[in-house]
Design brief:
alpha/beta, TIM Barrel, 52% helix, globular
Amino acid sequence: MIRWKHPLRGILPPSLFIPFAENSGKIIDIDRYVFRHVCQDVQKWEKGENRLLKISVNLSRKSVYDPGLIDYFQTTLDEYKVNPLLIEIELTESVAARDTIYVAALLKKFKAMGLSTAIDDFGVGYSSFSSLKKIPFDTLKIDKGFIDDIEVDKKARDMVQCVIDLGHSLEMSVIAEGVQSEAQVTILRKMGLDSIQGFFYSKPLPNYDYVKFLGENPYEKKKREKGAKA
């Protein structure tokens, strides 16, 4: 997750500078910067024999309509020799709903390159079910606002279950955003959710800490122990 290291105000989250970048047109440069650095990191992690997980890259509304976007992505993937299956492109629900025909065509180009795609923040009120059916996303990410109340609100649980079932019916993997408690994890597992994202597992981490976090998880420890015994 991108941060701005401001000389006076310190580390700034995206919410404090992305809106200004979008208004100024600099957001296209930022999106390209992020994609390039993701490719650099994946290449470095692979050379270091680190565990590789799929990395999501958010794409702004202006970048969606950038005529040079596809060529830039392909050139960058080729430059760093990155397996495109390790990168997922995320579009927010509002971006996807604005022009379903165009977005559907763009996603097909991403898939032709080997990149997977996700619709982010689903449920904030923009998409219709019919438009979701027309756009071939691989992953549906449920907005945090739906997850916050599932421990105490049956209606919230019913809505989340509905979205999970909808995603699966459209052959999408479904992720819940903003999961913060073990109780939420337990509820979501029973609902058949595919993946969980949130502070329950980890806060956003810088590069070094992310690699360390993956190396210290039980999956990786078991793999190293198995290798040592062999």
